[in-house]
Each structure stands twice: as structure tokens, then as C-alpha cells.
Amino acid sequence: MPRLIAPSMLSADFGNLHRDCRRVNRSAAGWFHLDVMDGLFVPNISFGFPVCKAIAEVAEKPLDAHLMIVEPWRYIERFAALGVKYLSVHYEACNDRHLKECIKLIRDCGMGVGVAINPETPAEVLIPYLRSIDYVVVMGVHPGYSGQKYIPETTEKVAVLAEMIAGAEADCFIQVDGGVSVQIIAELERLGAGVFVAGSAAFSSGDPKAAIRALLEA
């Protein structure tokens, strides 16, 4: 798939949220990325349905929600009702039965199905699920906070996952979330990643449109 940038709205200016949503609309970004944190699965709370709804009302690009929460199956239908197009849950937040139920429910709700893995989780745990999901989210940082430095071992994990997907003849893509920059994006793409979540890289400069373009052209 062509390189796609998904700006993380967690790094937007919440005092000017609609302004930053409009900036993303006018940029070359492909998706809006929503990092949803509950303070339990990760040591931080981000935002809930009211903020997601406010973004959805302005967004002119697909919404990609990443649930960093416990018991994600309880909220899948509500995210579908908001108009979310892609939804990922964490492998670490589910046992095998719950993860299979989440995958089925996300699919039944008409959304693209993603499974995210933390930096310490080996890629091989996803082998049983690759043929039933649309994408894998590889965390390039420890989930919970924006602005962290990229974990170098993520690059090798992307390569391993790409080989696993090819070996399974699975139709799914790789998303990298956390620490993505112009210095590493081309290598990650070469190894098999296609979607890149950009938080600080998109918003810290004050010119998201230019920052997103730089990521696309790096």
C-alpha cells in the first residue's frame, strides 16, 4: 500500500481542537488517529467519547481508533456508531477468547480490524490471528504518552511481521505507532510498514500540513 500518515490527535492542541482537525483535513494525511487510553491498561487517560465525537464531526478523512483500554469489547459498537472506519485493540488486553470475539465484533460492525502489540510482546503471538485481521499495530514506544523516543528494536519487529504475513499469505498491513520521524520512515516502509501514526512529528512544529508532507516525502 502507498505510504499513509495518520496524525495522532492526542498531540493536537485541545484548546483549538477544531482548528487542528481542519489543518489535518487540508493536509496530505490519510487518516485521523484516535489514541484512547483509560488509565488502567496504560498509566494515562487521554479522551473519551465526547472528544472523539467532536473530532468525528469535523474530520473529512477516515477515523482510526486505537483502544489502549481494558475490556475493549465493551466499547466496540459505540466506536462504530461514531463512524470509526478502523479499530484496533491490544493483544495484551485480551485472552484468546476475548480477542477472537473482538475481531469478530469489529468485523461485524463494518470496521477494519487491527491488533496492537506492545514493544515487549514478540511478533509471533499474532500468527494465529493474521488471516482474520486487516492490520497489525506495532508500538514504537511504550503506550500511554506522546513524545517518547522511538525504540530501535521496533524496526526488526516490522521486518519479522512482514515475513510472517507473507508466510501466512495473509491480507493485512502494518501500522507503526510511536516515535515515527523523517529519519526512520523510509526504512520502516522498505521493511513492510505502510501506515505511520505521527503525533509529535505532526503537531510539534506548529505546521502540521508541512510536517505531514515531510513524512510522506522523506
Report the span from N to C terminus. 16 Å
Q: What is the beta-strand fraction? A: 15-25%
- The helix count comes to 8
Rg (C-alpha, Å) = 16 Å
Taken from the alpha-carbon principal axes, the silhouette is globular
**Mean pLDDT across all amino acids:** 96
Structural class: alpha/beta
Q: Which spans of ≥5 residues are poorly predicted at pLDDT below 50?
A: none
Name given to the CATH homologous superfamily:
Aldolase class I
At CATH level 2, the architecture is: Alpha-Beta Barrel
* CATH fold category name: TIM Barrel
Helix content: 25-40%
Reconstruct the topology from this structure.
Blueprint: E1 4-7, H1 17-26, E2 32-37, H2 49-58, E3 63-68, H3 76-82, E4 86-90, H4 96-108, E5 112-117, E6 135-139, H5 153-168, E7 173-177, H6 185-191, E8 193-198, H7 200-203, H8 208-217
Describe the structure.
With 218 residues, this protein is of the alpha/beta class. It has one domain: Aldolase class I (TIM Barrel, Alpha-Beta Barrel). The protein has eight helices and eight strands; from the N terminus they run βαβαβαβαββαβαβαα. Strands 1-8-7-6-5-4-3-2 form an eight-stranded parallel sheet. Strand 3 (63-68), helix 3 (76-82) and strand 4 form a beta-alpha-beta unit. The chain is globular, with a radius of gyration of 16 Å. The model has no long low-confidence stretch (mean pLDDT 96).
